[in-house]
Write a structure and sequence with these properties.
The protein has about 120 residues and is mainly beta. The chain is about 10% helix and about 50% strand.
């Protein structure tokens, strides 16, 4: 059985605050990343976008670069995005944790542990 967090997530999320842009078809929306895990993130949107659950979106931030994902939910100006399982996305997220959350590094199972060394 897979270990899950208190809120039923497979991967632990870390709170964060950085800005970026969400791209959906021909729409661009300014966003703030509220939390992040190895496989997803939660966004606060500064304006409305027509993406619906299941839609593919791209996110560009200076912290992550360009990553792609699938909308899981979208309500009340917030959006949950499941990150695409590509080597590029995995590398971008690992790099983010290495540079911005040095005390917490995701392991292969997505759990965030204390960095040793």
């Amino acid at each position: 059985m897979e270990k899950k967090n208190y809120d039923n997530r497979k991967n632990e999320r870390l709170k964060c605050q950085f800005n970026g842009f969400l791209y959906f078809i021909n729409e661009v929306v300014e966003v703030r990343v509220a939390d992040i895990s190895r496989t997803g993130l939660c966004l606060t949107l500064k304006s409305w976008v027509s993406a619906t659950p299941g839609a593919t979106v791209r996110l560009r931030t200076s912290e992550l670069g360009m990553v792609e994902g699938t909308v899981r939910w979208y309500r009340s100006g917030r959006m949950g995005v499941h990150l695409a399982e590509t080597s590029n996305t995995a590398a971008q997220v690992a790099s983010y944790f290495r540079h911005f959350h040095k005390s917490a590094m995701p392991d292969a199972a997505g759990q965030l542990g204390r960095r040793r060394g």
